[in-house]
Amino acid sequence: MAEMGQPKPLHQHHHLVLLATVLAIMACTAAGEEGNGKPLVTAITKDGSTRLYSFPVIKNGSPLVLDLSGPIIWSTCPDSSAHDTIDCNSPACMRAHRYHPPNCPHTGYGQPDAPRNPYRCKCTAHPHNPLGSNSGGSTPQSGQDLTRVALSANATDGNNPLSPPVAFTAVASCAPESLLEGLPEGSVGVAGLGRSALSLPAQVGKAQGVCNKFALCLPSGSASGNLGVAIFGGGPLSLLPMVGTDLTASLAGETPLVKYKECPGYYVKATAGIAVNQAQVVLPLDDGKDGCGPLVVGFSTTAPYTELRSDVYRAFIKAFDAATSGIPRLPSPTSGPKFELCYESAKLGSTRLGYAVPQVDVMLDGGKNWTVFGGNSMAQVDDRTACLAFVEMAEGKATYGGGGEAAAPAVVIGGFQMENNLVVFDEEEQRLGFSGLLWGRRTTCSNFNFTMAAV
Ligand SMILES: *[C@@H]1O[C@H](CO)[C@@H](O)[C@H](O)[C@H]1NC(C)=O
Ligand SMILES: *[C@@H]1O[C@H](CO)[C@@H](O)[C@H](O)[C@H]1NC(C)=O
Ligand SMILES: *[C@@H]1O[C@H](CO)[C@@H](O)[C@H](O)[C@H]1NC(C)=O
C-alpha cells in the first residue's frame, strides 16, 4: 500500500515546489503597481569628511544618506501645508510605527491635522539620525508628518542606466533641518534600507515590480567620479571590464539573515567565530551578552569602520598584534578614529588584495567566510602609516527597540570593510550574498558604466 502510494505524494510535492516557485517569482515581478518590472540603479558617493555614503534618489537630484539599519526614509519637507499628510489609520502609518528609534518617547500615531482639518488624525513618525545624539546627530524627532516624496532613478539592464528615468512616490517622514546635523553637506535626509515595509528597497520593490532586495557596492574614495553603485531589485550587475557578466549570479546568498532583537537592520551569525591568519581567535563567546550564544554580526553604512564589542575587540587586537609582531610599528594617530595597531606602511608588503597583512575571516553560518584582506583592513592614515581599521564599539550603543540599553551585536561590519565588495541584501529570500574584495577579480565598485545605454 505504502509503496503504491509513493509516486502520488512525490507528484504532489513537485506541484507544491512549482507553486512555491511561481509564487516567489510573482512576488518579485508581478507585485508592481505601475512599475515596468526593471531594477533601478543609482550612483553612490562617499563624503570625505563624514565618511558617509549618499545617493541622489530625490526627484530633484538631492542626495539621501544610506542607512542599512534604518526602517524609514526621511527628508526635510516643504513647510506645513505644502506637503501631503497621511491618515493615522492607514496601513502606511502602522508600518511607520513598527520600529521605534532608541531614546525616543512614544507619542502615539498622530495628531489633529490642524489647521487643515482638525477632525482628521494625521500620521506622524519618528525620523532618526543614524549617527545618534553622541556622535553629533540630534535626538530622534517625534511628531513629524508622514508624507509622500517624489523619487527618481534610472532603470537598468545591469550594464548601463536606461532612459528615461523612472519617477515614483514613496512614503517618507518629514524632518526638521536640525536632524541633518552631522550628515554630508547637501544631503536632505536618510534612506532607510532596513528590513521593514517602508524601507527604500521595499518601496521600490512595490512601485517597480521588482524583488525586495538590493545589490550594494560602496566606493572606496571621495574623489569626484569615484562612484559606487546600488541596484534595487538586486541585479543583474556588471562591472567593467567584464561587460555582460552578471556578478550577482555567482552570489548564491548562502548566508541566512537573522533577526536581532527588534532591530530593522541586517544580521547574520558567526557561530564558528573569527580567525586571524587562519587561526581561530579565542573569544569569550557564551557570556550571554547578546543572549544568542553565537556571535551576531551586523552591517552598517553609518559606522565608517567595523566596530567590535569590547570583549571581542580585545581578543581580536591581541591576535592581530601577535600575528604581526615582526612588522615595525608607528604611533596611533592622535586625532580621528581610534586605531590601536599602526604600522610603517613601507614595511608592509603589498599584494593584489592590498597590504600583505594577516587575513581576517569572520566565519559565517552557512559556510562562507567574510574575509577581510589588507585592502579592507588597513587604512592609510598618512604617507607613512597604515592602521588596522577596526574600532572598539562604544559602550551601551543604542539600537532600535533597545531603549538605549540593549547589548550591541558582537561585530558591526562598517563601511570601509564593505567597500569594493559587492553585497546583495535579499529580504525576499532572507539571505546575504557577497563577492569578497573585487580587486581579486580585477575590478572595483567604481567600475559601473554610468553612460546611458544607446536607445
Ligand atoms: C540617469 O543616468 C544618467 C547617466 O548616468 C545620469 O546623468 C542621471 O542623473 C540619472 N538619473 C537619475 C534620476 O538618477
Ligand atoms: C574560513 O576560514 C577558516 C579560518 O581561516 C578556514 O579554516 C576555512 O577553510 C575557511 N572556509 C572557507 C569556506 O573558506
Ligand atoms: C559604456 O557604455 C556605453 C553605452 O553602452 C558604451 O558605448 C561604452 O563603450 C561603454 N564603455 C566601456 C568602457 O565599455
TrEMBL record:
Domain called Xylanase inhibitor N-terminal: residue spans: 63-234
CDD domains (alphabetical): xylanase_inhibitor_I_like (cd05489)
InterPro entries linked to this entry: Aspartic_peptidase_A1, Peptidase_aspartic_dom_sf, TAXi_C, TAXi_N, Xylanase_inhibitor_I-like
UniProt signal peptide: 1-32
Highest taxon of the lineage: Eukaryota
GO molecular function: aspartic-type endopeptidase activity
Keywords: Signal
Cross-referenced Pfam families: TAXi_C, TAXi_N
PANTHER family hit by this protein: ASPARTYL PROTEASE-RELATED, CHITINASE CLP
Family: Belongs to the peptidase A1 family.
Name of protein: Peptidase A1 domain-containing protein
Gene for this chain: LOC100835401
